[in-house]
Each structure stands twice: as structure tokens, then as C-alpha cells.
Amino acid sequence: MFLSDRPLRSVYRVIARDGHVVWFDCQAKIVRNRHGRPWFIHGVGFDVSDLKEAEEALKSARNDLEQRVLQRTAQLAQANADLQAQVTERLSAQTDWRVAPKNWPAPTLIWSNSRIRPPTICRNPFAMSRFTASSCGGTLMTGWTRV
């Protein structure tokens, strides 16, 4: 580098006598005499230990954040898969109620002994599945049963 007249720039790590690490950013250039021969080296060094510590802290924080993003992405993927399974299950159940299979029997009539009322037929398919007269509001309701 010195022979090409380009400045030399390097970062060095030095261990001090007390054991702590000191980082230097050094720049040097060769100075030549009027005949073009090297005369001396002119250079300067800066203590950049604080900058290196900040870079290490930033790397650590970034790695921690990357791990957290990967964990959260995995959690969200699992939650999405669970929700998709629920949607599929509910759409399947909804389709079962809209189209009754041919092997299902005719509606079953259930009478209530509580009060004498004119017979009513429940039109709520959810209530029909549970056979609860109170959810239909009448004493007579129609229910489906699977074979």
C-alpha cells in the first residue's frame, strides 16, 4: 500500500496492560522527498472503542430481534392454521344444515306438556338440532336426527 502512494487505513484491536480492549482506527501515508524516495510516514490513530461497543450492542439487539420475529412468525402461522381449520369446519357444518342428505328421515315432532297452545313449528335450524322448545318459542317443534 505504501508503495502505491495510497493512504493506508486499518482498524486494530489492542489489549491494554490492565486487560481491557482498546480499538484504534489508524490512517497513514508515506511522504516522499523531492526525488520521489520515501522520507517518512505520516499517520494518526483514533480510539474508536466506544464505536465498536455500540456496534456490538447493535448486532446483539438485531440478532435478538431476528429471533423474536422468527418466534412470532411461527406463532402467527400456527394461529392462522388453527383459524383456517375452524373456518373449514364451520363451512362444512353450515353446508350440512343447508342441504339435508337423502338418508335423513322426515322431521320428528316433539310435544311439550307445559301449556296448551296451538302447535307451532320451529324454523330455527340451530334450535332444531338441540330439540329445545324454549328456543323456538312454541310447544311443538320439528327436529332432524341423523341415521
Structure, described:
With 147 residues, the protein is of the alpha+beta class. The chain folds into three domains: 41 residues, Complement Module, domain 1, CATH 2.10.70; 46 residues; 36 residues, no CATH class. The protein has three helices and five strands. A three-stranded antiparallel sheet has the order 1-2-3, with helices on one face. It is rod-shaped. It starts with 7 loop residues before the first strand and ends with a strand.
List the helices and strands and how they pair.
Layout: E1 8-15, E2 21-32, E3 38-47, H1 49-98, E4 108-111, H2 125-130, H3 133-136, E5 140-143
Antiparallel strand pairs: 1-2, 2-3, 4-5
Name a few traits of the molecule.
147 residues; alpha+beta; three-stranded antiparallel beta sheet; 3 helices; 5 strands; 26% strand
Q: In a nutshell, what does this entry contain?
A:
With 147 residues, this protein is α+β, with helices and mostly antiparallel strands.
Major sheet characteristics: 3 strands, antiparallel
Number of separate structural domains? 3
Shape: rod-shaped
Which bin fits the share of residues in helices?
A: 40-55%
Terminal Cα span = 90 Å
- Taking strands numbered 1, 2, ... along the chain, how are they ordered across the largest sheet? 1-2-3
* Tally of alpha and pi helices: 3
Average of per-residue pLDDT values = 76
What is the SS-derived class?
A: alpha+beta
Q: How large a portion of the residues is in β-strands, by DSSP E?
A: 25-35%
The total count of strands amounts to 5
